[in-house]
Amino acid sequence: MNAVTESGKPVLTVLTGDDAPPDMTAVEQDAEVRYTDAAGLADALRGADALFMYQFLSTALPSAWHAADRLQWLHIAAAGVDPVMFPELRASDVVLTNARGVFDDSIAEYVLGQVLAFAKDMPTSLRLQDARTWRHRETERIGGASAVVVGTGPIGRAIARLLRAVGLRVSGAGRRARDDDPDFGTVHTTDRLAECVADADYVVAVAPLTDQTKNMFDGDAFAAMKPSARFVNVGRGELVVTDDLVAALRSGTIAGAALDVFDTEPLPADHPLWTMENVLISPHMSGDVVGWRRELVGVFADNFRRWRAGQELRNVVDKQLGYVPSGS
Question: D-isomer specific 2-hydroxyacid dehydrogenase NAD-binding domain location, by residue (predicted)?
Fold first, then answer.
């Protein structure tokens, strides 16, 4: 695949948010770059050969899609591609790539941090510190505890490896069952989710959002967990039926939840999750470490060079599955 205009340069549209992408100089030398916000996306797409969705949470593309009259390639600066999985894109010949690989280790570290926060009761220590209250308590070991990681892509694998390294017993849940996985050991199929989570101390959701995974964590899934289990969501908020999660936390069906993603973002100020002492909330930042924006641009810039040279692109998404297949 090679895109060249009469000027010898392809037209690249870049959808930005409040901040412009850093380190775009090399790309700007080899393309006619149109920076735009959501309001101007349709105009910027006319005659464009490629689209870089640096503002990866934007939902502006479906309504602007009618103007994509020459688009060959779309790159989204995220691991999850659900914001662009609308029918017209799926049915088109446009190649879709993502930022797979950027967030693996940082999200794994976040998950380990939340596991430790629960086991060592860090939130209570902080509340007691604020109140200047000295209250001795006993905490839990994580060595020997069990975790099920639901989602066996690169991020899930990084989580499994790190949790194993500190002594947890880890298994996975994905599309295909197997007993000899190098990172998970045993992988169950997600259609047997209730069985997978029944004995887990920690259930980690990192599956991509697809028609099959939407609302997979509902009242039945939480009821299948142990009352002492903690739920960690670093995948997508729409994996969870939020009202069912709130009910499970209130009733003691599960012991706690660490949530980085929500079905409505920002989480409304009056949402009951904010005031639950057994809930840890972060604002969709589990993978966002110092330098992450440059890494995102670096992945795009590498693919841009490949695209210009007609070479195979990295991280090509199967638009019917909604993610990059394993081994790609």
Answer: 113-286
